[in-house]
């Protein structure tokens, strides 16, 4: 079953959310309260006008003998019903609830002049109305007067009141949010600086973070982080010391063993079985090579190289010095080892780059037959410094080029005495230097391996 892993909110989002929610709640409550108070004030004014209409009608009621009547001229009734927006309805009923004047189907609502007027909201003729009923005693006769009006003007006034209240409050909320947003953003600037410090570092950079100006709330956390960096630096230094000691302890007996074999061979002890001597010498050489490669591989891992410092490295000088150490081997194998170097400088760890180039040259010497040509190159291509090794040997099949970077992998059918770590070491060093490794075939046969480094603003000369 596929699970949904949502990303947690950032600190900025959390702060804004916890400020925004109460602010919206306060804003909504304030709008409702202000709107209700304003609406009650407006209703009071309209109700007062409606109540005045009842009193105006009372003034037109007269009694003739025992029967009360309404002496209302058409002009007066038109004035009573007239309104620019709303409709006015009224009904006057006598003691027996007989209609004396007005709208016969207008309901009778509770109310009396002796008490506070009661106003009722209702639906009449499919419209919302506000109505009040008064019971008046005239010459001993109880007269019931009901007056109602539609609520168009009231609703329109309510909307105007709501807009007049909501707009300024909304502007205040928006302005407050902007102030809070920029305030929170400004307040989190030290965290952004710390984030940038960490994001811009490579795995080998274990320097302490600059926490002098950070907020005191995160100071303990960053202090613990710096303590962790210090522990990792000490561990990396201890690993480097161990590897150096191991290299010394392993190389010394192997060199001694090789020397003793050479002495025994010089004394003629293996005259009867020179093939066995050759196998012993080959085995010792392979063991020495394997130990050397393992130690170099361990030293190039990120954890072990954390204390290494990048410095400007002249690739053309490095190429010349690294290749010079292989000239004797090339002469013994009758291989033409040459240079095509142009000035190029990059930031890096010199001894690692020398090992990477040395492994590429060593591979070429191991796999190229006698009479081959190997060329070590350096220079700048498309603003990128590079190192390259060209040879006209058998090359690497395309289907094998991804596999050769695996540790201890050797191409099937290979007759070389390698241990399968050379290109793994080159890859580790390339990744540490953010460099790329590319293979390309030469037109006349052979292979070119190119290490391309990031473009930089250093003066390559």
Description of the structure:
It is rod-shaped and about 160 Å long. 20% of the residues are buried. The strands form four sheets. The chain has a five-stranded antiparallel sheet with strand order 4-3-7-6-5. Strands 9-11-12-14-13 form a five-stranded mixed sheet. By secondary structure, the chain is α+β, with helices and mostly antiparallel strands. The longest helix has 50 residues, at 11-60. The protein is built from ten helices and 14 strands. It has three domains: 11-158, 2-Layer Sandwich (Beta-Lactamase); 216-299, Orthogonal Bundle (Helix Hairpins), CATH 1.10.287; 310-452, Heat Shock Protein 90 (2-Layer Sandwich). It is found in: Membrane. Its EC number is 2.7.13.3. Keywords: Kinase, Membrane, Phosphoprotein, Transferase, Transmembrane, Transmembrane helix. Residues 245-457 form the Histidine kinase domain.
Short description:
The protein has 461 residues and is an alpha+beta fold.
Note the overall shape.
rod-shaped
Q: Provide the domain count.
A: 3
- Main sheet specs: 5 strands, antiparallel
Q: Architecture of the largest domain, according to CATH?
A: 2-Layer Sandwich
Q: How many distinct helices? A: 10
- Low-confidence spans: none
Strand order of the largest sheet: 4-3-7-6-5
Radius of gyration, CA atoms, in whole angstroms: 49 Å
The run of helices and strands is: HEEHEEEEEHHHHEHHEEHEEHEE
Give the proportion of residues in helices. Answer: 40-55%
Count of DSSP E strands? 14
Proportion of strand residues: 15-25%
- Structural class, by secondary structure, is alpha+beta
In quaternary terms, these chains amount to: single chain
- CATH fold type of the largest domain: Beta-Lactamase
Distance between the termini: 60 Å
Mean pLDDT: 76
């Amino acid at each position: 079953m596929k699970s949904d892993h949502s990303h947690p909110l950032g600190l900025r989002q959390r702060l804004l959310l916890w400020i925004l929610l109460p602010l919206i709640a306060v804003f909504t409550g304030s709008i409702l309260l202000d709107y209700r108070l304003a609406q009650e004030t407006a209703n009071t004014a309209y109700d007062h006008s409606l109540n005045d209409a009842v009193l105006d009608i009372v003034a037109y009621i007269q009694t003739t003998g025992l029967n009360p009547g309404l002496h209302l001229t058409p002009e007066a009734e038109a004035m009573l019903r007239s309104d620019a927006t709303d409709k006015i309805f009224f009904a006057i009923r006598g003691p027996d609830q007989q209609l004396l004047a007005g709208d016969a189907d207008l309901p009778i609502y509770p109310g009396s002049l002796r008490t506070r007027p009661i106003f009722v909201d209702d639906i009449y003729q499919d419209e919302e109305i506000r109505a009040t009923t008064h019971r008046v005693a005239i010459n001993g006769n109880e007269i019931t007067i009901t007056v109602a009006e539609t609520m168009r003007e009231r609703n329109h006034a309510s909307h105007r009141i709501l807009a007049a209240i909501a707009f300024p409050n909304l502007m205040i909320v928006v302005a407050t949010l902007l102030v809070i947003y920029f305030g929170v953003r400004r307040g989190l600037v030290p965290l952004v600086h710390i984030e940038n410090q960490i994001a811009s570092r490579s795995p080998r950079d274990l320097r302490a973070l600059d926490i002098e100006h950070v907020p005191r709330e995160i100071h303990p956390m960053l202090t613990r982080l710096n303590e962790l960096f210090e522990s990792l630096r000490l561990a990396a230094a201890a690993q480097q010391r161990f590897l150096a000691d191991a290299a010394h302890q392993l190389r010394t007996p192997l060199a001694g063993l090789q020397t003793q074999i050479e002495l025994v061979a010089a004394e003629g002890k293996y005259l009867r079985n020179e093939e066995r001597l050759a196998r012993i010498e080959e085995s010792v050489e392979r063991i020495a090579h394997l130990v050397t490669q393992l130690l170099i591989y361990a030293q190039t891992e990120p954890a072990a190289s954390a204390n290494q410092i990048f410095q400007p490295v002249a690739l053309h000088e490095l190429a010349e010095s690294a290749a010079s150490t292989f000239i004797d081997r090339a002469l013994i194998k009758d291989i033409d080892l040459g240079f095509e170097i142009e000035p190029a400088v990059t930031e890096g760890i010199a001894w690692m780059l020398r090992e990477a180039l040395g492994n590429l040259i060593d591979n070429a010497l191991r796999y190229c037959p006698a009479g081959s040509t190997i060329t070590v190159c350096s220079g700048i291509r498309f603003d990128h410094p590079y190192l390259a090794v060209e040879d006209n040997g058998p090359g690497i099949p395309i289907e094998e080029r991804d596999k050769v970077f695996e540790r201890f992998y050797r191409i099937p059918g290979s007759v070389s005495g390698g241990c399968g770590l050379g290109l793994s070491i080159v890859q580790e060093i390339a990744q540490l230097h953010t460099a790329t490794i590319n293979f390309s075939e030469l037109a006349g046969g052979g292979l070119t391996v190119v290490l391309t480094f990031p473009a930089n603003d250093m003066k390559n000369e």
